[in-house]
Amino acid sequence: MSITAIAHPNIALSKYWGKREGAGNFPAVPSLSVTLRGMATRTRVAFDPELRADRFVLDGHEADGTRVTALLDRVRGAMGAPRFAEVVSQNDFPTASGLASSASGFAALAVAATRAAGLDWDAAQVSDLARASSASAARSIFGGFVELAAGERAASVVAPAEHLDLYVVVAVASEAKKATGSTDGMRRTAATSPYYAAWLEDAPRTHARLRAALLAKDFSAMGELAEASAMAMHASAIAAGIVYWNPATLAALSTVRELRAAGTAVYATIDAGPHVKVLALGARDAGIAAAALSAAPGVLRVFETRPGAAAHVEAAP
Ligand code: PMV
Which of 8, 10, 13, 16 has most ligand 1 atoms within 8 Å of CB, for mutation? Predict the structure, then answer.
């Protein structure tokens, strides 16, 4: 059977950085994200008794399917008659747009593969499957504001997308592929950063306060904590020699600080790349942020996104 699923990227407000020791890809710290709308990964999975190996096509090109096969192996473990699959995946946003495609990619794959295999798994089981490949993907199974507790198998919803009139304004700081993937960056941070222990100690506190601020709809407290989480994550990585930032990142960061000093409540967050994602409440402040970021030196382009929906199987045409 062939199933197509759609999933959206998410952006972490309190960041996941670092894995627990041992197998299973469990984060060392809790994280809270918002699933985004307007961008999607669309993935079709077809198990086929004729195939002698998995086949993976990404954005129209045959691609390395090692991590795809690892997820499919887990699905095959639960399948009555294990078979190989053809997986065809398409991002409707450029891979270098600055929004992690691994989260939406593995979320869409987990939904499509379990359904194509005939497994009647609930969202928590599918989230657990996605987490084993990419912990941020566990969060993209759900819509709105989503949390993944440290050591938990699956993510869960904290608040629906409509909870806040949130805008995420993305300042694209480079079109290049990032130099250090997140798994490698986390491993090197844990192995050599003198600030990794401080990160592990602080992250759960920041997360708990951010979660409370979100539930209380206290946007400025939430924004300050989100920015603090990103700065602490990057400080721990930078101390291990892993610098994801470029000059445009710093220009966008100082633009955000200037806007704040002038009275606009906007806050920055940055993932394992140079792009700056700015949190704003309401269309007016988002527009102010977008205009200012467009003028920041080195920023290539700016786009706006909003909280979005859960991963789902595409309805038959
Ligand atoms: O799940 P991964 O391996 O793509 O790692 C995600 C790491 C960050 O994006 C930097 C933080 C996060 O919580 O999404």
Answer: 16
Q: Kindly report the number of other CB atoms within 10 A of residue 49's CB atom.
A: 7
d(CA 187, CA 210) in angstroms, rounded, equals 26
Nearest CA to ligand 1 atom 10: 271
Q: Is 113 left (phi over 0), alpha (psi -120 to 50) or beta?
A: alpha
Tabulate helix, strand, coil % of the chain (nearest 5): 40, 25, 35
Q: How far apart are the C-alpha atoms of 19 and 11, rounded to whole Å?
A: 18
pTM above 0.70, yes or no: yes
d(CA 217, ligand 1 centre) in Å: 25
CB 33 within 8 Å of CB 136: yes
Sheet bearing 61-62, strands edge to edge: 61-62, 55-58, 85-91, 41-47, 2-7, 312-313
Rounded to 10 degrees, the C-alpha dihedral 118/120/121/123 comes to 110
Q: Which residue has the tokens 């539930």?
A: 215
Q: Using the mean position of ligand 1's atoms as its centre, give its distance from the Cα of residue 182 in Å.
A: 6
3-class secondary structure, 166 = strand
Measured in angstroms, how far is the CA atom of residue 53 from the centroid of ligand 1? 29
pLDDT digits (tens, 9 = 90+) for 194-251: 999 999 999 999 999 999 999 999 999 999 999 999 999 999 999 999 999 999 999 9
